Amino acid sequence: MLLPILLLSAAGFTVLTTEFLIIGLLPPMARDLGVSVSQAGLLVSLFAFTVAAAGPFLTALMANIERKRLFIGVLIVFGLSNVLAALSPNIWVMAVARFIPALTLPVFWSLASATAVEIVGPAYAGRAISTVAFGIVAATVFGIPIGVLISDAFGWRAAFWVLAAVAFAKALLLFVYFPQKRIVGETIRFATQLRVVRDPIVVGNVVLSLLIFTGMFTAYTYLADMLERLAGFDGKIVGWSMMAFGAIGILGNWIGGRMVDKNPLGTTTLFAALMALGLSFVTSVMHNHPLLALTLGLWGISQAALFIVCHVRVMKSAPQAPAFAASLNISGANIGIGLGAVVGGAIIDRLGLAALGWSSALILAAALVVAIVLMAASRRATARPAATPDAIAADACPAGTACADSRG
């Protein structure tokens, strides 16, 4: 059953490249569309906020749809949206091209993760999801940087044309090779999925993801701009630098996928602290290229790890509805992505580009406080004595009432 997981990983590459490619294209795209970089950065927020708003509801509605048909449909939508992006004459048409795929991204990522877990079992959820999530790492290693290199050589619109062709090719691969048989467990009722949001531990985990991704994307949204304006790199070096940033993330994906199954909150805390450390220094070492490489390496490892760690952590907090929990994590993460783009743009306008690093680190410090509180709450919940069979029977049949014997 490894083939379906690898196919989902390949599809995830296209889906996540579509979301994040624009980060590497912001400077030339903004110039061509006649807007500022911070205004173009709002397209990142539009995509992210759409994912956050629509994700849980659409995922809950589509959780029981035959998976092959659903995944192929998502890729076709992404292909058509990238065609529209390549043809966009202004920022408003580009906004439509960003809005449409944002509706389907959380459905794909939530159900692809749940499908992988259903294939291997919950004990190996971290490893299975990290295999699917390798598509995210590949998007940062190859997708975004190659898109930047294509943009530098042929224009930013060419990058979207290539991505559209890749999306249609992946849809064809799924059509030919993905199993037709529905790879799902028992059907989960819509109401059962919605009840997950009443669990404070689940909600706390989603808030933690929100804060982490806000801190992450306050800086990452404008990484290409930082490398161009602060480090003095041209478009080609920016592309290769972002490829190296993503490549080191392979290590983070591998480590995070193996650590998260043992201690999800502890692993989150570790990598969030490491990323805050890297971001604290990143803008101050822009002209010292060896130190810049080390700092970007620490940031890249932590960021790639946190993509998978946050996802698995929230899914494990709601084992009764993991796909819906995954969609909640995607919503929280994308609210963070959108807020990060907005906050980062505001910081650039008010404090300057060099303030992005330490500002992001302060947001991650707030996330660490939430993680510590959640660890304490989780320990208290685990320490509560489990209900005994006699207590359950007493609750079901209070004194003075007649209950039928369960054995008839």
Low-confidence stretches: 386-408
Indicate how many domains the architecture comprises.
Answer: 1
Number of helices: 16
Fill in the CATH topology. Growth Hormone, Chain: A
Order of helices and strands: HHHHHHHHHHHHHHHH
The helical percent reads: over 70%
Q: In one word, what is the shape?
A: globular
Alpha-beta classification: mainly alpha
Assigned CATH class: Mainly Alpha
Distance between the termini: 43 Å
Describe this structure in words.
Keywords: Cell membrane, Membrane, Transmembrane, Transmembrane helix. This is MFS transporter. GO terms for molecular function: transmembrane transporter activity. It is found in: Cell membrane. The chain has 408 residues and is mainly alpha-helical. The chain has a single domain, classed as MFS general substrate transporter like domains (Growth Hormone, Chain: A), CATH 1.20.1250. The chain is built from 16 helices and no strands. Helix 1 runs antiparallel to helix 5, helix 1 packs antiparallel against helix 7 and helix 11 crosses helix 13. It is globular, with a radius of gyration of 22 Å. The C terminus is likely disordered.
